[in-house]
Write a structure and sequence with these properties.
The structure holds 2 protein chains of 2 kinds. Chain A is built from 9 helices and 2 strands. By secondary structure, chain A is an all-alpha fold. Chain B is an alpha/beta fold. Chain B: Keywords: Transferase.
């Protein structure tokens, strides 16, 4: 809007001049020698301006169903934190969580193995790497237990908070299933956070179970959930609601009514309020395009 | 605008007028103190040359030359290697000849003048400006070298003898007073007399004898036809030169002496360039040289060819050569380079030949005249008697020398064989990876140096003796002489200082033993233990991993205790050891120093071991951390292309990698703290040893003799030559008559004597004080101490490969034969008279 006003205003100055009227019409060509001053702006200058050409209108329900993709990852982080607090406060036997996690992983694996078409790795390889990871964890647990003994707990909480935040940011939320694995960085960040947290635990068994659980949650579960997302969106929604229930229960047990309330409000606002807000903000969209746009450099990917 | 155009036009006219003028009669040599080199093309009134050809007053600052600076300057400004550069530069000063000779060269129709300056030589000298008549024909000037120290006292009529290098190029070497021209020519013809007079020295080959002739006269009343006629009214005045055209009659009279003279008519009109010089005295080992005297051995002076320095130097040399090619483009390569060398050679010979000539003239004057007076006969008789006695004495002396030599030869050979055996053991390397003994221990290195020096001395001495008998090889003789006596002096000095140090150590043995004891107990055992215990207990609030710190601490404590046990066994022998160190002072102060350095290395082996272990662990951990960090980011290092690629890892790789990454990150501070502690300790020990070793280098290589010579007689250490303008006179018609230039030898700069030290300090700086070394140290990588490189200084006075036993034997044999023949000759001389 500003642009057009400016153009007409400055263009008028010259058109009002009677000497200019009889001249040839101005052409928007820099290389042609024209009888106009250098700062001359013609009325036709912005005639080809186009606005909001590629803006698409969102529908509320589509947005809110898509937001469940993010929500489900946030749920898994929340579940993880709940499990840590539970183990850290010695409320529950850590082996329980590891066995539940392993059971779910097995179920998920068989579902993925049975239904999935894109399965490339053989079962023996999978079994081998599973054994490798488990035995490494067994070996490293005592070392990890004493790793951060001299560091104060506050710094550990801060480190793990930042690592999880980065994990949530860097997570791959795409809906298609082009890759078999999620991007490495977010997985690594989550595992690092888990390792740091695990080093606060008191017994070797708890360290081992906690790390096993975290690997299942952050290493394997994203693969499964993404596959499920691409397999059937309804199944994804079901999975998300299961996760929601589990998280709510976990929140209740860890933090009581107060935590449950805050959490539920946050989640509900993310699913229902945030899409509505986004749609409301669409009217401020002002995207301009025109023939003067500089050519975009084409970057060739390696 | 109009006036401006007019100005330009005016300027151009002026320039044209100037260039016109320059083409007509003159051009200028301008040797400013600022470094510059410029080629000026004079063709068809080109503006540059026009501007340059205007007579330049001394106030005229060489600003335009700054613009004309070529790339050469950027090379020289890097100030990399002054000495080398100076050498390069003086090579370039071959073109000096062009400045002095003032030739212009015709290339097709254009004429090229070169204006050179050599800042290094003329740096602190006054600016030399010469304006000389330039004739179109080459040569344009008659050049005469005039020995100022040889001018006769009362300016009596004298004959000028010297070299005639070309028809316009004369080097006067002697001004012989009171002698007839024809007698002088006879003397020169009877060269046998000259050679006889010069003793056993052969002066054949030292100069081109066909060039030696009678050149002219000084203050001669009788008319003659020699080319040069010089007149001198008083000693305060400058001699006046005149050129005579050779007549056929004189050519016949003089025979070959001034034959080949094809003096054209033009030569009478040519200006004179008179170069005054003082004849260097060969008896005092003085000489002049174009190049600075090289105090190192030739194969050692560029001992760093495999180094970065060497590479830089070589590339610079190539560049300099390239520039030279560009600058001298179009010049016909004549024998000018030989020309200046032959002048220098002739000037160096001048005193010797001059005195021989005078002797010969007096002999020819006196000997045939039997009918002279009694007085003269007595004088001659006494002279003969003196010479006979001298001959006899020298015969007896050489006889003595021969006898001593026969005894010495056996001893020398025995010594040489024994030292060869020791050297072989010292240098023996069972494998190329295992260092030889001399690379490990400073004492053995010192022993090696002394043995090699002692092996080289006889050969050096024989070379010196051989060259001494031949007077005219002085230029190669001098550096060898300085090297030989320098090393002898240094050894003598070393022993004198060593005796003092040794007796001091022996006198204060108890204190020293107590001190060493304290060091072993308090610093090396208790102190280290305390440090490690402190490290195990969260040092300075650092939060280390308890388990790992305990592990490291116990490991290093064990090593220290282990070595402490051995040191306790060693403890009772300490007084004897100190006594031994004191005794070793009597074979040179370098030995106690080297022994102390070795003792320090021996006592601190445990620190070295701990350093090695912790450095390995630290480096390993850092390497693993870096590659795991790449994995953490989902990247990996591509070794083949030396870059970081993205990579899809398997899930299990990712998980285990991340686990290990977190683990190692938290363990890193602990490892780093232990490593840095030992690295600092090691650094301190290296510093102490480096100090001791640099004092060794000083004692072994200080250019003592050269500095003494420099103070005593700087002409014995020539560093080049320079020319100063003294005066220039005009003729009646306004053209330039005679230009007087003084040739002065330049003494070798002190910096050039310490060249090796500069190189060494630069190398040390680059190897040990650079960021790279700090980075290496922090990452726990091995910081190499290249002892052999540091020691290259110490060996720079020795040849690369020592002379073998057979070589020595042959040399000795040869030498004995020459001595014997000398004795025989002397004997024959005595018999004959």
């Amino acid at each position: 809007m500003d642009y057009t006003r400016f153009a007409t205003k400055s263009g008028q100055n010259y058109i009002m001049n009677p000497a200019v009227v009889s001249r040839r019409p101005w052409r928007k060509l820099l290389w042609v020698h024209q009888p106009y001053p250098d700062n001359y702006v013609d009325a036709s200058f912005l005639s080809q301006l186009k606005r909001n050409l590629h803006v698409q209108q969102y529908s509320f329900w589509a947005l809110s169903s898509d937001s469940t993709v993010i929500i489900s990852h946030v749920y898994s982080v929340a579940i993880f934190v709940c499990v840590f607090v539970a183990i850290y406060k010695d409320k529950y036997n850590p082996a329980w969580f590891a066995s539940i996690g392993s059971f779910c992983t097995l179920v998920g694996y068989f579902a993925w193995d049975g239904l999935g078409k894109e399965n490339t790795t053989s079962r023996t390889t999978t079994a081998k790497s599973a054994v490798l990871i488990v035995s490494t964890l067994l070996g490293l647990s005592p070392v990890l237990k004493s790793l951060t003994q001299s560091t104060s707990s506050d710094s550990i909480w801060a480190i793990s908070f930042w690592l999880f935040l980065l994990n949530i940011f860097f997570h791959d939320y795409s809906i298609g299933s082009k890759k078999t694995f999620p991007p490495t960085l977010s997985t690594n960040l989550a595992i690092a956070a888990a390792t740091v947290l695990a080093s606060r635990l008191s017994t070797t068994l708890s360290v081992f179970s906690f790390l096993l659980f975290s690997i299942e949650l952050f290493g394997l579960f994203p693969i499964f959930s993404r596959w499920l997302r691409s397999y059937s969106f309804v199944a994804h929604l079901i999975l998300t609601s299961i996760l929601a229930v589990v998280t709510e229960v976990g929140m209740f047990y860890i933090g009581g009514w107060w935590a449950l309330g805050v959490w539920s409000v946050a989640i509900l606002s993310a699913v229902f309020v945030a899409p509505g807000w986004l749609i409301a903000l669409q009217k401020y969209k002002n995207e301009i395009q025109g023939p003067w746009d500089p050519a975009k450099p084409v970057l060739r990917n390696r | 605008m109009v006036s401006m155009d007019d100005d330009i036009g005016d300027f151009q006219n002026q320039a044209e007028r100037r260039s016109e003028k320059s083409r007509r009669n003159n051009f200028h040599i301008h040797l400013p103190s600022t470094p510059s080199i410029a080629t000026v093309l004079t063709h068809g009134g080109a503006s540059i040359s026009g501007a340059r050809s205007v007579p330049v007053s001394s106030a005229d600052s060489p600003t335009d030359e700054n613009e004309l600076k070529s790339d050469y300057l950027s090379i020289r400004n890097s100030q990399h290697d002054r000495h080398q550069y100076l050498r390069e530069h003086i090579r370039r000063d071959i073109f000096l000849e062009k400045n002095i000779g003032l030739h212009s060269y015709k290339i097709g129709k254009r004429r090229t003048n070169v204006i050179y300056s050599y800042d290094e030589i003329f740096k602190y000298r006054k600016r030399v400006q010469t304006t000389i008549h330039q004739s179109a024909v080459h040569p344009s000037v008659t050049r005469v070298f005039w020995p100022t120290d040889c001018e006769p006292q009362s300016l009596e009529p004298s004959v000028l003898v010297g070299f005639r290098n070309s028809r316009s190029d004369y080097v006067v070497i002697a001004i012989v007073p009171e002698v007839d021209i024809s007698r002088m020519i006879e003397t020169l013809d009877g060269r046998e007399t000259l050679e006889h007079l010069s003793g056993f020295a052969s002066i054949h080959g030292a100069y081109d004898s066909s060039k030696l002739c009678v050149l002219g006269t000084l203050n001669f009343k009788i008319k003659h036809s020699l080319p040069l006629v010089v007149e001198m009214n008083s000693r305060a005045e400058k001699p006046r030169f005149r050129m005579q055209e050779a007549s056929t009659a004189i050519q016949r009279l003089n025979g070959h002496a001034i034959l080949n003279g094809e003096y054209g008519l033009k030569f009478g009109a040519m200006p004179f360039l008179v170069i005054f010089y003082e004849r260097p005295l060969p008896r005092r080992l003085q000489y002049i040289s174009f190049m600075p005297i090289n105090l190192e051995l030739a194969d050692r002076s560029n001992f760093n060819t495999d180094d970065e320095d060497g590479k830089n130097l070589r590339s610079r040399r190539i560049l300099v050569d390239q520039t030279r090619k560009h600058t001298v483009f179009g010049f016909p390569q004549m024998d000018k380079e030989d020309c200046i060398n032959s002048w220098i050679n002739e000037i160096n010979l001048s005193h010797e030949l001059g005195s021989l000539l005078e002797k010969a003239v007096t002999l020819t004057n006196v000997l045939p005249a039997e009918s002279h007076s009694l007085k003269v006969r007595i004088v001659v008789g006494t002279k003969l008697l003196i010479s006979r006695t001298r001959n006899l004495l020298s015969f007896l002396w050489s006889l003595l020398v021969m006898a001593i030599m026969w005894i010495l030869m056996g001893g020398l050979m025995l010594y040489r064989v024994a030292s060869e055996a020791v050297l072989r053991i010292i240098e023996w390397q069972p494998k190329s990876s295992i260092p030889a003994l001399k690379d490990v221990s400073a004492t053995i290195q010192q022993l090696d140096l002394r043995l090699q020096q002692a092996c080289y001395w006889p050969i050096q001495y024989i070379t010196l003796r051989n060259q001494k008998s031949n007077l005219f090889l002085k230029t190669t003789f001098h550096p060898e002489y300085i090297r030989f006596y320098n090393s002898l002096w240094l050894v003598a000095n070393d022993i004198i200082i060593g005796a003092a140090v040794g007796s001091y150590i022996i006198d204060n043995r108890d204190y020293i033993v107590a001190f060493v004891d304290y060091c072993i107990n308090e610093i090396l055992t208790t102190g280290l233990r305390r440090t490690i215990e402190w490290l195990m207990d969260w040092p300075g609030g650092l939060k280390l991993n308890n388990e790992l710190a305990a592990f490291f601490g116990e490991l290093f404590l064990w090593v220290i205790e282990f070595w402490g046990g051995y040191l306790r066994i060693f403890r009772p022998y300490l007084p004897d050891l100190v006594y031994l160190i004191g005794l070793s002072g009597f074979i040179g102060a370098t030995f106690p120093i080297a022994l102390i350095a070795d003792l320090i290395s021996f006592l601190t082996i445990q620190i070295y071991c701990c350093y090695l272990a912790s450095a390995r662990i630290c480096n390993w951990q850092l390497t693993v951390l870096v590659s795991l960090f790449h994995l953490f980011r989902g990247k990996r290092r591509n070794v083949l292309r030396n870059r970081i690629d993205s990579c899809d890892y398997d899930l299990d790789q990712l998980l285990i990698g991340t686990l290990l990454f977190t683990l190692l990150t938290f363990l890193l501070p602990t490892v780093l703290v232990f490593y840095l502690t030992f690295a600092c300790a090691r650094l301190g020990i290296i510093l102490i040893n480096a100090m001791l070793e640099s004092s060794l280098a000083l004692l072994n290589h200080f250019p003592l003799f050269a500095i003494m010579l420099r103070l005593k007689d700087s002409k014995r250490l020539p560093g080049g030559i320079e020319f100063d303008l003294v005066e220039q006179s005009a003729r009646d018609d306004g053209s330039v008559g005679t230009v007087y230039v003084q040739l002065k030898p330049i003494a070798l700069p002190v910096t050039a004597m310490f060249q090796q030290y500069f190189l060494l300090s630069k190398r040390i700086q680059r190897h040990y004080l650079s960021l790279r070394v700090i980075a290496l140290l922090l990452t726990g990588q091995f910081v190499p101490i290249q002892r052999s490189r540091l020691y290259s200084l110490q060996y720079s006075m020795l040849p690369e490969n020592r002379f073998g036993i057979w070589e020595l034997w042959f040399r000795l044999h040869e030498f004995s034969v020459t001595v014997r023949e000398e004795v025989k000759k002397k004997f024959a001389l005595i018999i004959s008279k």
